[in-house]
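Continuing from the previous page...

OK, I double-checked the sequence for Ion-translocating oxidoreductase complex subunit D against my notes and this is the correct one:
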Amino acid sequence: MKLITGNAPHVRANDTTSKVMTDVIIALIPAIIGAWYFFGGYALFLILLGAVTGELFELFIMRVLRNDKSFTPNGSAAITGILLAMNVSSATPWWVFLIGLAFALGIAKHAFGGLGMNIFNPALAGRAFLLVSFPVAMTTWYKPVLSFTKWIDVQTSATPLAILKETGNVNVGYWDLFIGNRGGSIGETSVLLLLVGFIYLVIRKRIKIMIPISYISTVFVMSSVFYFVNPSFGTPLFHILSGGLMLGALFMATDMVTSPMTIKGQAIFGVGIGVMTLLIRYFAGYPEGVSLSILLMNAFVPLIDKYTMPRIFGEVES
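Thanks. Re-ran it with the corrected sequence; updated structure tokens here:
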């Protein structure tokens, strides 16, 4: 019998990084269309700018700065650009957005070694950088324009979370929260369209479903307790539908690189994000806590993986 040896991996699949990234982009299309309708042509411009410029930035970083002449784009930088655009206000100037994108790719991703090596979600790291560096642009919100042809609406409007924090009251109904007719970041408002894309990723088996389940469940249980104690904290359904919680739960926290590998670890990760999200919303000066909570839990992922990895059969305990 002739034995043939070769280099690992010996079990191969048809999947490639480009195919996975293509599925993620397809899943984001409903929310992108929603962002275009609710916030006008400028929102679509920012998203397309993020996708194209993200790939160009990464091509420059890899071929020029890292001297990898064999590198070819795989779509991951485009997704970073799209997600960062979906996490900013429609009041954000395009040049400010590009500064955040350069930070996301250059510092949060490639300073750690590139795809698969980064500790923090690049898009959320870019958003956090912009929030600190350009707080006015990042916290000025425009009312939905409800038009594909209108460029931008100059009427400002506080987000539902900001109004709840300031007044203890809610100024928008659950239906508007669900479909996206409210102020907020351009890609976070429509829960309906985000769910459509999420279902596609579930069908394609591209998503870690335990993370959104544990995250949303934690928010529901914890906010129920706080609402029972004091209704001014807001109802559980309000907290689930408001802000960037659904975008964070379905597309940001589930990032393959920056989330735990085991089911148990993913559950711990989701619970941690949920608890911190509400603590920030309830007691911090900023009304939203999704981005910061995910970034904080990203830092704990190596520790979570270490203590939730299953024991190898036959391993001798040291």
